[in-house]
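User: For my dataset I need records formatted as: sequence, then structure tokens, nothing else. Please produce one.
Assistant:
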Amino acid sequence: MMQKPATPPAPVSLFALYKLFFVVGICSFGGGLTAWFHREIVLVRHWMTDDEFFSGYSLAQVLPGVNSTNMAVYIGQHLRGAIGSATALAALLTGPFFVVIAAAVTYNRLVELPGFAAATAGIATAAVRMIFRMGMTSADRSLRHLLSVIVLIATFVAIGIMQWPLVPVLAVLAPLSIAACWRRAGDKTETPAP
């Protein structure tokens, strides 16, 4: 008996995409957006897999520009193409645009509010925690392969400790990392002979 092929999931609506990115953009302070994207898009809504998300995250890190806007463009493109990219980016920037204008006008009054500094410190702490969690999720997959661990440690030592320039370090280590992933992917696709 032939099995029916699985029905592809319905595409994400532009309204749902706009709403999510607008809420993330308006509610986030001082970073942590990419971790929030991961939570909402991979863990809560299941619009992407971890592999799809982290592929885009890697790309967003090396492209020029702000990581969060790069991720918005990537996620929008992945889910709905060019119109999805434009929708996600516009939604991400709409709320903060007006908030920053309003904050600039009322800044002197905001800093005088009791608890304002504590509230912003608490928000920053939550953002750091989200980034740490996303980093642990990403590292969990990398730590399963020896070459990935070696590249991870070499990158940390070269950039974090030795303070070597990013571009030359990536020029050496990125091809090694890509070759290792390519080899692992090739091993997975090989089927044993009958």
